[in-house]
Write a structure and sequence with these properties.
InterPro entries: DeoD-type (IPR004402), Nucleoside_phosphorylase_d (IPR000845), Nucleoside_phosphorylase_sf (IPR035994). The chain has about 240 residues and is an alpha/beta fold. The chain contains 6 helices and 10 strands. α1 packs across α6 and α3 packs across α6. It binds 1-O-phosphono-alpha-D-ribofuranose (R1P) and uracil.
């Protein structure tokens, strides 16, 4: 069995999946956090791995960057591979002044300038929201680990370059925590396919203050966030 973008056999993916944007991060998560990780797909170098954590099966698949890319991979996992939960483990640029580099943001809603959800139900301004069960489990795991965590709306932009600082300032004034590029699409796919989804993101840059993490700091933070996401995706929380 394969889909246009995933070449894996039935049962190769666990029902619960972590989803970073970067294929290298997918490989690192599998190799450092899973027991007995095995590569299950690498079409277009988008790597998917499956292993176990505390004896429970779990997978990781990269999404690539942007709403169309994550929509393809999340749809194929939910629709054809029996996946029920996807937790994005991303990076984001901070907008809210209280955020510090390395903090974890959990997206309780996702604003977007993408049309990806507008075209799902014509005439409807779709409210892109995560699974409450996954969200509460991620927050509990972060607090238990002593990791600073912020819960609130994030902004999923089609642009990495070219969003005006006036847009970011207005979003911050409207309570938006951070900007990234996939959460709104992931939440839309989960709703359409009857699955559960959540976005967690590490603040790697602060756009108002012009701060950035070093590569070594990024790697350290990804591991911390991935452990929180693992606790959420493997939790028994009802949706
Ligand atoms: O680090 P990832 O998960 O890719 O997330 C962020 O980084 C990419 C942009 O550099 C976009 O995909 C954005 O959402
Ligand atoms: O500033 C940033 C950092 C990560 N991801 C984004 O989309 N923007």
């Amino acid at each position: 069995m394969s889909t246009p973008h995933i070449a894996a056999a039935p049962g190769d993916f666990a029902p619960v999946v972590l989803m970073p944007g970067d294929p290298r991060r997918a490989r690192l998560i599998a190799q450092r956090l899973f027991d007995e990780p095995r590569l299950v797909t690498d079409v277009r170098n988008i790597e998917g791995w499956t292993g176990t954590v505390a004896g429970r099966p779990v997978s990781v698949l990269a999404s690539g960057m942007g709403c169309p890319s994550i929509t393809i991979y999340a749809t194929e996992l939910f629709r054809f591979y029996g996946v029920r939960r996807i937790v994005r483990v991303g990076t984001a640029g901070g907008l809210a002044p209280r955020l510090q580099l390395g903090d974890v943001v959990v997206g309780s809603a996702a604003h977007t300038d993408s049309s990806i959800n507008t075209t799902r139900i014509p005439g409807v301004h779709f409210a892109a929201a995560p699974s409450y069960g996954l969200l509460s489990a991620a927050v509990a795991a972060a607090r238990a680990a002593g990791v600073p965590v912020h819960v609130g709306p994030i902004f999923s932009s089609d642009h990495f370059y070219g969003v005006g600082s006036d847009v970011f300032s207005a979003l911050a004034r409207h309570g938006t925590l951070a900007v990234e590029m996939e959460a709104a699409a992931l939440y839309g796919v989960a709703a359409a396919e009857g699955g559960e989804a959540l976005t967690t993101a590490t603040i790697t840059d602060h756009l108002e203050r012009g701060e950035s993490m070093t590569p070594a700091e990024r790697e350290e933070c990804f591991q911390r966030m991935s452990r929180i996401a693992l606790a959420a995706v493997l939790s028994d929380s009802p949706s």
